[in-house]
Write a structure and sequence with these properties.
Elements: E1 14-18, E2 21-25, H1 27-37, H2 42-59, H3 64-89, H4 96-123, E3 140-142, E4 157-158, H5 160-165, E5 168-171, E6 178-183, E7 200-205, E8 211-228, E9 239-241, E10 243-249, E11 255-261, E12 264-266, E13 273-278, E14 287-295, E15 308-314
Antiparallel strand pairs: 1-2, 3-15, 4-6, 5-8, 6-7, 8-13, 8-14, 8-15, 9-12, 10-11, 10-14
Length: about 325
């Protein structure tokens, strides 16, 4: 017998030889045959559909609460649809008025919803549509400018007082160094950097060796951001910035996520840059502290990272492990 080449379509999973004949076995055909033999098998298709929804939710890393409540709502609407279909199939004259009443109610509801949606979007009435949408605005921003440094820009202010009043504890400061609020006019006569919000930034001084400090927050965070201010290349040697890293830590001081940058130099002005530390979705962790580590390599213009506009997004306590 000569060999026969057979190309199978994707839905065909198996070939069998029965009585000298090639029989193509398809999962879809098997399902149809099973439903003919046992009609109740069709309910298994519904179970498989629900399992597929669960797999989709897990695959896209969506919130399972949305899937659960959405499924319940859909099942409820399906029940209403089944009842309505049954009534429509056996409708008599007594249901005509009920159908008219339901039709007018849904029509008026659609018109009212559309009208309010338009007025909310264009005229912010009765409420702005933005108020119904999730906001990515931070809960609080610390710009470090409340401390008066203009009276003596060359004398930096210890940051403990400002941070403590803001619910942030300062820990783990490298021995022999200080964490300060620095007026930009007190650093290279204001020709090295320009804060996004003037006049102060948060930084660490008094050492050219690797240094670090940790900010501990009184409330857990979902996300945190900070800005590196614009750098000014005022001389022929340009501007240099230290290597740094920021580690977000949970309540057990385990690292959740990090951001950082290598030591770099530039012969041109550098724009400000924003960096984010955000808890991975569905991790169950919350940011309790952030550790800043800097290394100026004994030649960068600054001892440590310059931090401006520290923004925080607070987390509900129930979301933290």
């Amino acid at each position: 017998m000569l060999p026969v080449s057979v190309q199978l379509s994707p839905e065909v999973r198996r070939l069998e030889v029965v009585g000298g004949k090639i029989v193509i076995i398809s999962p879809l055909q098997l399902l149809r045959d099973a439903q003919k033999a046992v009609p109740a098998v069709r309910y298994a298709v519904g179970v498989a559909g629900i399992a597929a929804v669960v797999a989709i939710v897990a695959g896209f890393e969506l919130d399972f609460r949305i899937a659960v409540f959405g499924t319940v709502i859909i099942l409820g609407l399906m029940f209403v649809l089944v009842v309505f279909s049954a009534l429509a199939a056996h409708a008599g004259a007594s249901l005509v008025y009920l159908a008219l009443f339901a039709g007018w109610c849904f029509s008026l509801l659609t018109v009212a919803t559309s009208t309010l949606l338009m007025t909310s979007y264009f005229f912010s009435w009765p409420r702005s549509i933005e108020s119904y949408l999730p906001s990515d605005k931070p809960d609080q921003v610390f710009n470090f400018d409340a401390a008066n440094t203009y009276s003596d820009p060359n004398s930096p202010v210890d940051a403990r007082g400002y941070l403590g009043a803001s619910g942030i504890e300062l820990r783990g400061i490298t021995d022999g160094t200080r964490v300060i609020l620095l007026n930009h006019l007190g650093s290279y006569a204001g020709k090295a950097f320009l804060p996004v919000s003037r006049p102060n930034v948060l930084t660490q001084i008094d050492s050219n060796d690797p240094v670090s400090f940790t900010l501990v927050f009184s409330r857990p965070l979902l996300k945190l951001s900070f800005v590196l201010p614009p750098l000014i290349a005022a001389t022929e040697s340009g501007i240099t910035f230290p290597k740094w890293r920021a580690d977000a830590l949970d309540a057990r001081e385990l690292k959740i996520v990090s951001v950082g940058n290598d030591l770099f130099g530039s012969y041109k002005h550098e724009d400000s840059r924003a960096f984010f530390l955000e808890v991975p979705p569905q991790s169950g962790a919350c940011i309790k502290a952030v550790k800043f580590i800097s290394d100026n390599g004994h030649f960068a213009a600054f001892s440590a990272i310059l931090i401006d506009d520290l923004a925080v997004w607070y987390a509900p306590t129930s979301k933290c492990r």
